[in-house]
Design a protein that fits this description.
The protein has 405 residues and is mainly α. The protein is built from 19 helices and no strands. Helix 1 packs antiparallel against helix 2, helix 8 crosses helix 9 and helix 8 packs across helix 16. The chain is globular.
């Protein structure tokens, strides 16, 4: 009977289990993302019991990515970045580069290919915006100096990941073609890809900033809440489709640019807020689908690999961020706080890992390593924050004794 309604059963099972596990995570004062991932694992083919339709879940996840990236664009603030650009921009670039290099070397030592190791490093080099913002809000750090640096840092990471998502299919085709690499061909392919993407971005900024506010004003005059929500979803998904079909870019870039352009106008921000519940639901389905692809037996079969990935995220990346902050003469407590803030991975890591798996860059084991390290790092991140907060007085005394602010 249930087999006759695969879409309904998949959506219902995903939403119900995501709610139950998300509620449990919330009661335990853990990020709700963790609950959504666990719901996906329970519904996946690698655990006993009911198995959701993975193909349908992946398609729903694509919609989730579009709306998730639209939300990222809506929260993108050039003003926030400008305020802390002297630390956030070079800090994020250096941290991502060094972390990627470390992970690349470690993965190649574990006998993985260069392209797989490189993408693996990039995947672990970025932190979850959702997890970090919740932690900053919980500990009332969002308006502090370190909070603003952390937000600016994540903005730079988001921009970098947008570029990676756009270029990854191009490099996947080049590296998996089975032919000897022609530098001229590689540069030519990358150049034409970037040219098309630049054309799309410029068109969105120049034309979109003029047309979208006018469109939203026209919709607002109808005084229909349903049409306003539908209009926002149509804009985000429509531009994602245009980016993919006409410019060869990713759905993610199109949705991000739609959110970014809308965020530039007051009516755009107010209108987008009304679509937040729907965006949240599809974002949840995205995290559930990411959990479905995870094979929990890897924790038993490859414990060393999981520990390595976990240490790279929590220890390696955090240490790099800490030393960068100290080089930029940031205080001891601020440096520790930022390091802890980045000691996890999240939504962009899932999106990139899923894309790498789809493009046959990642093996199932490497994908499982990413998801496992995400689950573990997200779980312990609140405790690391609490520990840092607990020892703030001691850290401040040490900073004063050392003559540092």
């Amino acid at each position: 009977m249930l087999e006759s309604y695969p879409l309904i059963t998949t959506v219902v099972a995903s939403v119900v289990l995501a709610f139950l596990f998300g509620l449990l995570a919330n009661r335990l004062r853990l990020p709700t993302i963790l609950g959504y991932l666990l719901a996906g694992i329970m519904l996946g083919p690698n655990t006993p019991g009911f198995i959701a339709n993975i193909n349908l879940a992946e398609q729903l996840a694509e919609i989730g990515v579009i709306l998730l990236m639209f939300g990222v664009g809506m929260h993108f603030s050039t003003d926030d970045l400008i305020k802390v650009h002297r630390v956030a921009i070079p800090g994020a670039i250096i941290q991502m580069s060094v972390t990627t290099l470390i992970c690349l070397v470690v993965a190649m030592m574990l006998k993985h290919s260069f392209i797989e190791s490189l993408v693996f490093g990039v995947t672990l080099s970025v932190a979850s915006t959702v997890v970090l913002l919740r932690a900053l809000e919980q500990y009332k750090l969002i308006d502090s100096h370190v909070g603003k640096v952390a937000v600016g840092w994540l903005i730079v990471e988001d921009i970098a990941m947008i570029v990676v998502l756009v270029l990854l299919p191009v490099f996947a085709e080049i590296f998996t073609a089975g032919k000897s690499l022609d530098l001229h061909m590689v540069l030519q392919t990358v150049f034409f890809t970037l040219a098309k993407i630049t054309t799309f971005v410029v068109a969105m900024i120049v034309i979109g900033k003029k047309l979208l506010p006018l469109l939203l004003v026209a919709i607002a005059k109808t005084k229909s809440r349903e049409l306003m929500v539908l209009g926002i979803i149509a804009i985000s998904s429509g531009f994602a489709f245009i980016a993919y079909t006409l410019f060869g870019a990713s759905f993610a870039l199109g949705a991000f640019m739609a959110g970014f352009v809308l965020n530039e106008s007051e009516i755009g921000r107010k209108s987008a807020d009304k679509s937040l519940p729907l965006r949240d639901i599809f974002a949840v389905l995205f995290f559930v689908s990411a959990g479905m692809l995870f094979n929990p037996t890897v924790l038993i079969e490859e414990p060393i690999l999981i520990v390595v990935a976990f240490l790279l995220v929590v220890v390696g990346k955090s240490a790099v961020a800490y030393f960068i902050m100290r080089v930029f003469k940031q205080g001891l407590y601020n440096s520790l706080t930022l390091a802890v803030s980045l000691a996890q991975i999240g939504e962009f890591s899932f999106i990139l890992a899923a894309l790498a798996l789809k493009l046959n860059i990642f093996s199932n084991v490497v994908y499982d390593m990413v998801i496992a390290s995400a689950i573990i790092s997200i779980t312990i991140n609140p405790f690391l924050f609490a520990l840092t907060k607990k020892y703030k007085p001691i850290v401040n005394i040490q900073s004063v004794l050392q003559g540092r602010v």
